[in-house]
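$ ./design --mode recover --in tokens.txt
reading tokens...
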């Protein structure tokens, strides 16, 4: 039985992703069992700020071609400065591992090469870097649904988000929509090249 068949048939996959807007991505992320999110406002503020920045920049590669070379240079320099500031702020913290994940407003599946010491029902925090160009992280309260070992040495961990406040849930939905729209645009570009 292949990993894809296991994942499609797993009940947690249905609970988190059926009928929901989902995004498959490779991002810095980790789950810390036992930890609790004290405040959701910083994650909400980060996602809202990210939405404003990306709406101004334009996610669609066609829209970005309309920017002047001067505007593109300024954006690139700003990206570099933000990345540097993020690295400096986090230089004493352990870096998040870059892993494949599937994400919806209900929860996330992390596909890691190492299993985590946790069981179904364990609470914790999912920490993710929502944008490659911004070295900042969001923290989301979650509960372990299940963990299974798949093929090719991957371990699949399903986490259901817990009691997100309305503002954070809305900001996350908007972010997921932008990620999904970007993935569709990239797929169209690849298809047009072949």
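writing sequence...
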């Amino acid at each position: 039985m292949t990993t894809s068949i296991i994942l499609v048939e797993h009940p947690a996959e249905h609970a988190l992703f059926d009928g929901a807007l989902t995004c498959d991505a490779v991002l810095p992320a980790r789950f810390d069992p036992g930890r609790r999110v004290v405040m959701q406002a910083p994650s909400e503020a980060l996602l809202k700020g990210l939405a404003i920045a990306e709406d101004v920049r334009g996610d669609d590669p066609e829209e970005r071609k309309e920017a002047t070379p001067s505007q593109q240079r300024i954006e690139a320099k700003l990206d570099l400065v933000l990345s540097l500031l993020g690295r400096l702020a986090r230089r004493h913290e352990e870096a998040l591992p870059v892993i494949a994940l599937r994400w919806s407003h209900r929860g996330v599946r992390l596909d890691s090469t190492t299993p985590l010491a946790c069981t179904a029902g364990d609470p914790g925090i999912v920490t993710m870097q929502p944008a490659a160009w911004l070295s900042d992280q969001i923290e989301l309260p979650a509960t372990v649904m299940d963990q299974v070992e798949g093929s090719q040495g991957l371990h699949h961990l399903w986490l259901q988000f817990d009691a997100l406040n309305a503002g954070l849930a809305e900001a996350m939905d908007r972010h997921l929509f932008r990620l999904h729209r970007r993935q569709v645009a990239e797929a169209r570009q690849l298809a047009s090249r072949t």
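exit 0
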